[in-house]
Amino acid sequence: MPLSSLTQLLHHALQTADYGQEPPELYDPVRYIMALGGKRVRPLLVLLGAHLYADDVTAVAPAALAVEIFHNFTLVHDDLMDAAPLRRGQPTVHHRWNPNTAILSGDVMLVRAYEQLFRHVPDQHLRRALALFSTCAAEVCEGQQLDMVFETLTDVTVADYLRMIRLKTAVLLGFALELGGILQGATDADAAHLRAFGEGVGVAFQLRDDLLDVYGDAATFGKQVGGDILAAKKTFLLLTAQQQLPPADQAQLAALLAATDLASAEKVSRVTALYDQVQIRPQTEALIERTYADALAHLDAVSVAAARKITLRHLTDELMDRAS
Rounded CA gap, 71 and 76, in Å? Predict the structure, then answer.
């Protein structure tokens, strides 16, 4: 089944989903955020994980929808915590409605995600699917908490950061692939390899996003280039620069990040110049390549024919090669 067919199957599931009706003040925001689009990578990974083992994955579509509902739940709450005004170019839920509505609508989305699994996962897989989902959901919350904690810490390490993005971003990709595989009979060994592959892709994807935030083309990146610098966000790039720059340049970097009297473009330019002194861009690109290569070793170890992996590999290659 080509990716276009899987995308069509997912689109049908999204179009026919019933998230709830009354009161509309609760469910209108759910329909709103779910209709805003996006790459739909996570639910596609559920379908692709299943497609490794079966040609017809129609029965897995409700589980894919559950993963997409959960992902959008995290976006509603993350946007509120970040006070973000826009999501995919449109007002965030808390801006279009209000913070209390964003909390409640997000909460009911989490409930609906569980409900999707309860209703549609076969009995022989249900207990395991729910246990894995609960673990994943808790880890995503842990990652978000760590991300917020890091804002005020001065001793965050690169290892700390990589652990945080694994939890906040990558575990959901790993769960999506593992869930799809399990629902079509993947062995325990294959399920573990699928989870590891998805997590590796997720970490590499986030590192790519961090790199593009500094070195991307503003015309194609989709958001402000240098936003992480302006927010003094602790990323692999910043943490590595802080570790490798000479003491005088470390002090200059700290002063630039704290400066309130610099134009945004100048601050970004000067910080980027410090990054360039210690070759941050090639270092980040090398880590992305190593992380993705390690992930692909897990995909290679999945015990299905190589031909069945082609569509999944094409999707993840596109994610790694993206410029926006």
Answer: 9
pTM over 0.85: yes
What SS3 class is residue 91? strand
- The predicted pLDDT at position 89 comes to 82
Beta strands, E only, 172-299: none
- Beta-bridged to residue 90, according to DSSP, are 87
Between CA 312 and CA 257 the distance in angstroms is 40
Residue 114: both structure tokens together: 């569980």
CB 177 within 8 A of CB 49: yes
279 SS3 class? coil
Instruction: pLDDT band for 321, please (50, 70, 90 cuts).
Output: confident
Distance CA 138, CA 241 (A): 31
User: Tokens standing for 42?
Assistant: 């996570």
In this predicted model, what pLDDT tens digit does every residue of 8-32 receive, in sequence order?
999 999 999 999 999 999 999 999 9
Using CB atoms within 10 A of its CB, is residue 171 exposed (0-12), middle (13-18) or buried (19+)? buried
